[in-house]
Design goal:
The structure is a single chain. β3 (153-157), α7 (163-176) and β4 (184-188) form a beta-alpha-beta unit. By secondary structure, the protein is an alpha/beta fold. It has a 5-stranded parallel sheet, sandwiched between helices. The two termini are 16 Å apart. It has 9 helices and 5 strands, in the order ααααβαβαβαβαβα. It has 2 domains: 5-92, Methionine synthase domain (Methyltransferase, Methionine Synthase (B12-binding Domains), Chain A, domain 1, Orthogonal Bundle); 101-220, Cobalamin-binding domain (Rossmann fold, 3-Layer(aba) Sandwich). 57% of the residues lie in helices and 10% in strands.
Length: 224
């Protein structure tokens, strides 16, 4: 899905700007209008939200935003998702079949959950059973949750560059615990690429929620 700012309409640009600027009073009504009145594709609106959250994440890393802004950004996304999710499910007729189980969490040292929330949301509406274990997740919690939930896929999320070391440490701990080969591992975040994937030892990476869903579908043998 095209998130090139040059391809955005004026309304789309306005939504991204207001979300990134923490202008909740204007952003939420605009998103509601786009979804309910203008009938904009809800997937498109969520992609615009992701683009806005990328900006929020960069401002956080640069010291312009702090934890309260991240919390507010997450709340705005939750509010928009609450409107978008039923629309997406209605368009697809819903899904009763469970294609597989996915455990997802943001690795320790990182509090970003915007991207993770969108991936969780997308996997859910695409027929996967998803367990989201939150942010700043210690290695041992991942291991404990894996043993109890028995996922087919584990998703490690992180936006900050320090998350790369946490991902590597977490995956190494899976190996030490003797569970590394029991599931596939995908990683995602603002600056993840093939070099980071190789560094961490993950099976694959996704640059957005659509790719994450595609990876899970491929691994589970689910037709597109």
């Amino acid at each position: 899905m095209d998130t090139d700012p040059n391809a955005w309409t004026e309304l789309e640009r306005q939504l991204v700007d207001w979300l990134a600027d923490m202008n909740e009073d204007d952003a939420l009504p605009l998103a509601r209008r786009m979804l309910l009145d203008d009938k904009v594709d809800p997937m498109r609106v969520l992609e615009l939200c992701r683009a806005a959250m990328d900006i929020v994440g960069k401002r956080f890393e640069e010291g312009e935003y702090f934890l309260p802004e991240l919390v507010l950004a997450g709340e705005m996304l939750d509010n928009i998702g609450a409107i978008a999710k039923p629309l997406i499910k209605a368009a697809g007729g819903g899904s009763v079949q469970t294609h597989g189980k996915v455990l997802i969490g943001t690795v320790h040292g990182d509090l970003h959950d915007i991207g993770k929330n969108i991936v969780t949301f997308m996997l859910d509406i695409n027929g996967f059973e998803v367990k989201d274990i939150g942010v700043d997740v210690p290695v041992q919690k991942f291991i404990d949750e894996i043993k109890s939930f028995e996922p087919d896929v584990v998703g490690l999320s992180g936006f900050l560059t320090l998350a790369f070391d946490s991902m590597k440490e977490t995956i190494a701990a899976f190996d030490t615990a003797g569970i590394r080969n029991d599931f596939k591992i995908m990683i995602g975040g603002g600056q993840i690429d093939e070099t980071v994937r190789a560094y961490t030892g993950a099976d694959a990476f996704g640059v957005n929620a659509v790719e994450a869903v595609g990876l899970c579908r491929d691994w589970m043998g689910v037709a597109a």
